[in-house]
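ugh ok fine here u go
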Amino acid sequence: MPGQVDFYVRPETSPNALESFACRLVEVVWKRGHDVLVLAASDMAARRIDDLLWTFREESFVPHRRLGSDDENATDPPSEPVIVTTPGVWRNELDVLINLTASVPAEAGRAARIAEIVPAGGTGRDAGRERYREYRNRGFELRTHR
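structure:
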């Protein structure tokens, strides 16, 4: 049965601002006791998120690990509650998926909850609307937060 998708519509459009928001969201979700998979669009974007999770707030620490596509242990349950990776690497069930890609990932079907971060304008907004329609067509429960 499909889970819930929360769309966070952000006034920012720059990738840096959206990635910073993603890190704050990861921290909130992790502090509530959930394991989190952050799905980045590319290895470079995954490295940026990995670096940001160390520095986005001086007083914060989010235990995390970045898995690459060549990581042979990608299917083993890691000890870290937050995993940063790219599509196709993670194959296990997951608690919360934060999708930073432009499409609905295959991993969506294995997540209890999904967070989508959508810029309020530009092509990012259009891609967000397309993902919204696809999730709706798949029967997910949808919520929007501004």
